[in-house]
């Protein structure tokens, strides 16, 4: 059996930084408790749609690091300029999908060119 290798554009230090605030033990315990509740009949399988933790992103920081206007950044993300403005001033938060996209752009600025 051959060894599985994963390729990443991130360094080991960057990967460590991304998982710095992740408590894997708590996640495992939560999953085990959910499985136990299911086994005891106290919960249905639908109850446990996996909750995925979303990365923290600061929309303003990401946008300014890219030297983009709100209008240009909105176009890249496929949202309105008002939406970006609302995210930046805290009136609303990005959807999970937008948050993931912003995070990916934050990690790899070259994605902006691909999305334009």
Describe the structure.
9% of the residues are buried. This protein starts with 11 loop residues before the first helix and ends with a helix. It folds into two domains: 12-53, no CATH class; 55-116, 434 Repressor (Amino-terminal Domain) (Orthogonal Bundle), CATH 1.10.260.40. It is 55% helix and 0% strand. Helix 4 (70-77) packs across helix 5. It is extended. The protein has helices at residues 12-18, 24-39, 59-65, 70-77, 81-89, 96-107, 111-115.
Structure summarized in a few sentences:
The chain is mostly helical and 116 residues long.
Number of strand elements: 0
- Highest-level CATH class of the largest domain: Mainly Alpha
Fraction of residues in β-strands: under 5%
Low-confidence stretches: none
How many domain regions? 2
CATH fold category name of the largest domain: 434 Repressor (Amino-terminal Domain)
- Average pLDDT confidence is 83
| N→C terminal distance | 42 Å
- Label the structural class: mainly alpha
The largest pleated sheet is described as: none
In CATH, the architecture of the largest domain is Orthogonal Bundle
What general outline do the C-alpha atoms trace?
Answer: extended
Provide a count of the helices: 7
Tell me the helix content. Answer: 55-70%
Order of helices and strands: HHHHHHH
Output the CATH homologous superfamily of the largest domain. Answer: lambda repressor-like DNA-binding domains
